[in-house]
Specification:
Blueprint: E1 2-13, H1 52-64, E2 68-69, E3 76-79, E4 89-92, E5 99-109, E6 115-129, E7 133-136, E8 142-145, E9 152-158, H2 165-182, E10 194-205, E11 211-212, E12 220-225, H3 228-247, E13 256-261, E14 266-272, E15 282-283, H4 293-299, H5 307-318, H6 322-329, H7 332-351, H8 360-389, H9 400-411, H10 417-430, H11 434-440, H12 449-462, H13 464-471, H14 477-488, H15 495-507
Parallel strand pairs: 12-13
Antiparallel strand pairs: 1-9, 1-10, 2-5, 3-4, 3-15, 5-6, 6-9, 7-8, 10-11, 10-12, 13-14
Length: about 500
């Protein structure tokens, strides 16, 4: 039996105003080679200066991953020659990275919705500068855009702990979410803010699951994977390709580098990978060591609540389903919005006279009802409406307090679901107060039984054929008639009272 051995190297582009060692802007530029200077272009006689914002970001990520912060930490020169490296070396970190020896646990979906926990070791996280970007033309020419050269990167290296492509993908998604929660990067793979190199080899196991032969064999590194789907597919392809080599008696004998061809759904060999000695690391002479112990102590208590803890708290405090909590927390801005809505709803529940002095079981039942209502409306109605408008929770006109007011109107039955959607649309359009919209559009629940009775009579008069069929035994037509009454009253009639009135008249 063959077992995959997978490790990841993840580069996260830090969201700093300037580059890692100079004052050039690190944001994307409209034209090539405008965010450059003698320092990031590697001109002789120039001296680098460390970006403090990048240091703080690296320490925060290290703490979030449970790492020890190295103090002192230092920078090193990593030598290789390529057009995208203007100095002929990259300033990186070798033996004293900013953070080391941590771990991150992720939940892996299993059968029957059961989730297993995989704990992945973090060997190190180190800071370095990015290379430039090569642009290849159709006539075979290569151009170099140095705008990206010198942009701060945080490279996180995992242990060889992944057992499947799915685990690797889920880990990457969680790491991206942590970076966004910390606010250190947008971590958008499609824009190159997060890039992944995946290392994979196979090893033999006996029937008891013990390793037979070498614990680690020559690995294949699949470079620059820029989407979660590519990571999963490239690893799955490599497992299949290397399995065939093992079965043929010719397992990989050297460490190689390959790229992913998404059009052909396969990896393509690029070169034999360099060893550490080929890079000729030595300490960067122009940068002093970083003493980070005090900075780590300062930043540790200021870390925000991390995604895993927030998901668990949402389930516990707001009686949410685990999947609903996961969807809310997957976007930090959406989670913040939901948090404020839940807080408003909790305050409202405490003011409900019927719940004053109620037993704990009654409280829990009502809290679960409100949790289900709010999460359902946020994840389906609100996000659906925003998607249709091309809008986003970060910039929409309605705020958590108004949305909570809408939820209160729905929870108390003063507004039904159809009316709620009309109110929500107006809230997103103008930022209006939901109660005002309900009153202006006369969407509130119809309290007058006489008005409902009149609407019922009109429907029975307008649909004689359906009434006759109902009396002839087609009892399912009751729902149709209820729907017609709701349409007649523009959704304002109470559905339960409407049903009772219809039954009285139809069964008379």
């Amino acid at each position: 039996m063959l077992e995959p051995v997978i490790g990841l190297e993840i580069h996260i582009q830090l969201k700093t105003k300037t580059k890692m060692f100079c004052g050039c802007a690190s944001q994307e530029a409209a034209a090539p080679n405008v965010n450059v200077c003698p320092i990031c272009m590697g001109h002789p006689g120039t001296l680098p200066v460390v970006n403090e914002e990048a240091i703080r970001a690296g320490v925060r990520m290290g703490l979030a991953l449970g790492c020890s912060i190295t103090s002192p930490s230092k920078f090193d020169r990593k030598h290789y020659f390529y057009p995208d490296l203007p100095k002929g070396y990259q300033i990186s970190q070798y033996d004293q990275p900013i953070a080391a020896k941590g771990s991150l646990s992720v939940e892996i979906p299993g059968k029957d919705a059961v989730r297993d926990v995989a704990t992945i070791s973090i060997e190190r996280a180190h800071l370095e500068e990015d290379a430039a970007k090569n642009l290849h033309s159709e006539d075979g020419k290569t151009f170099v855009d140095y705008n990206r050269a010198g942009t701060p990167l945080l490279e996180t290296v995992t242990g060889p702990d992944f057992k499947s492509p799915q685990e690797a993908k889920i880990f990457l998604q969680e790491l991206r979410l942590i970076a966004r929660t910390l606010g250190i990067s947008d971590a958008d793979m499609e824009k190159g803010h997060l890039r992944c190199d995946a290392n994979i080899s196979l090893r033999k196991l006996d029937d008891d699951g013990n390793v037979v032969g070498a614990k680690f064999n020559p690995k294949t590194e699949v470079k620059n994977l820029n989407s979660f789907r590519h990571v999963e597919r490239a690893l799955a392809y490599e497992i299949q390709r290397q399995t065939e080599l093992w079965n043929a008696g010719t397992p990989p004998a050297a460490t190689t580098t390959r790229g992913w061809d998404d059009a052909k759904q396969r990896t393509v060999e690029q070169r034999v990978k360099e060893a550490e000695g080929d890079y000729r690391y030595f300490p960067e002479p122009d940068l002093p060591p970083l003493v980070l112990a005090e900075l780590a102590d300062e930043l540790r208590p200021k870390l925000p609540e991390l995604p895993a803890k927030r998901r668990a708290r949402f389930v516990e405090e707001y009686s949410l389903k685990a999947d609903d909590a996961r969807q809310l927390v997957d976007d930090p801005a959406l989670a913040d919005f939901a948090e404020r809505v839940f807080s408003e709803m909790h305050a409202w529940l405490q003011s409900v006279p019927e719940l004053d002095g109620a037993e704990e079981a009654t409280w829990e039942k009502e809290r679960a009802r409100i949790g289900k209502l709010v999460s359902s409306w946020i994840l389906t109605k609100l996000l659906g409406a925003l998607a249709e408008r091309g809008d986003d929770v970060r910039i929409m006109k309605t705020d958590p307090e108004n949305f909570a007011e809408l939820m209160t109107l729905l929870a108390t039955g003063k507004l039904n679901a159809a009316g709620g959607m009309t109110v929500l649309a107006e809230m997103l359009e103008s930022g209006a107060d939901p109660s005002h919209v309900m009153e202006d559009k006369r969407l509130g629940r119809m309290e007058d039984a006489g008005q409902i009775a009149e609407a019922v009579d009109r429907v029975l008069e307008n649909f004689p054929a359906e009434v006759a069929r109902y009396k002839g035994g087609e009892k399912q037509l009751l729902q149709f008639l209820i729907g017609m009454v709701m349409k007649e009253t523009e959704g304002a009639a109470d559905a339960k009272e409407t049903r009772n009135m219809l039954l009285v008249k139809l069964e008379a």
